[in-house]
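Course assignment 3, question 2. Fill in each field.
Student: A.L.
Task: Predict the tertiary structure for the chain below.
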Amino acid sequence: MEKAILKNVAINFAGLVLPTFISLVTVPTYIHLLGVDRYGFVALVWTLIGYFGVLDFGMSIATENQISKACASGDDALRGRLFWSALWLNLLTGIAGGLLVLAGAAIYTHLGYVDSPLKHEVMRSMPWLALAVPIANLSWVCAGAINGAERFGVFNTNQTIGTFMFQLLPIGAAWLFGADLPTVIGTAVIARLIAGLMLGFAVVRILDVRRVLGPERVLVKSLLGYGGWVMVGGAATGIADSLDRTMLGAMLGARFVTYYTVPQNLVTKLQLLQLALHRTLFPRFSALEREGADKVARDSLAFMNGVLTPLCVAGMFILGPFLQVWVGSSLAAASLSLGRILVVGVWFVGQSALARILIQAQGHPASSTRVSLITLPLVALALWVGIHWFGILGAAVVVVLRSAIEYLVLSWLAKIRAQTMLLETAVHLGFLLVSVVLAEMFADRIGVASALALGAVLTLASAVWSWLSSPGLRTLVHMVLGRFAPSLLKWAGSAK
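Answer field:
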């Protein structure tokens, strides 16, 4: 596996971890300053703004795809024309979205759905909410352009700084000027504007944009044709991802949603590595011809399995003690088994997502979107059956089966030609399944120390197999040792 790809994976991973950390740390401060009601409204506001991301029309991912191809061909002029065409389109849709937010929020407030003590504050916050939509739309295009040029260090630096400003500046403003909604939301929007301007200046420097250009009809049509399929597929996938919790709440009650969501939110943190790898690979897949992309995909699958499988195996045995400390023994007992099942689902999601981005990057987003659309009603039906007959565990099993089936279908559509990896992949999956069975049969009966020891043995065995089967993992270890412990690497080389 190329060292440049591994370096970019590390950069993207750091760029995902740091914003997640600062977001978690600042939540108690926000609740203390704003109170439960105001903080709940702020959380709903940013959820609403996220829903308006559909007005991006997949333009950010389309921009990333097309600019990566232009960079590979050396067509500097085309990069600038693509960027400006996408930017003008997203500015137009962002303004339309802002007007919709303004009108919708006004109607919602005047109909009396907001408690009277907050009604005046909500009304004063509306202009800020409207402004947030075009800012987000423009920022996404800039992010797509930077990632398309594979300048991940620049993107993640800006993203991290932007997240720190977005989380910390409103807290400072609340202390200085008062903890009301217009102050907090307005400061957060200003922080996003500054972060967006930083991304814009970075794009100008990276793409060497020397003058403002108008949108080109041919390029806009091409971007919309690509981005539209990505948008529809993303919407279908997002609905399918939330169906498990929605149907659990409707069929079993809110209490079971808590039992399900707590371990789900925890185990999905394992996906940070997958997200970092996928963010790195999309522009590379877009720029490569089919044969080269196929080789990178096989190497990346081997690397991802090599790193992720030992972590998942360890998670099977650590999950129980961690949940007991984190949420208490009662909730841990109700959530533990399905949490272990969901770990297997996380492993399959990484496989299917890599095949999905390969299909999209190679110019066939319609194929992956059709898979999402076809599976959506089937997932809903399977969840109804699973929850009706097997309760909360039935929902978890359906989620894993959905991920596994999508992995098989998307891998077939992607034509990765990974037959040589069948044995390695089967062994990785075998470690996962054996870990689930042993954890369920023995971990809760033999005591915490003995369970952790059993988990350590299985994790070590999985890590040894990963070392033997993943050249990318060996390259990564050599890179890390060469940077932080060169004497140890030199000693290891001489010992051979």
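Instructor remarks: The chain has two domains: 3-215, 228-495. The chain has a mean pLDDT of 83.
Grade: pending
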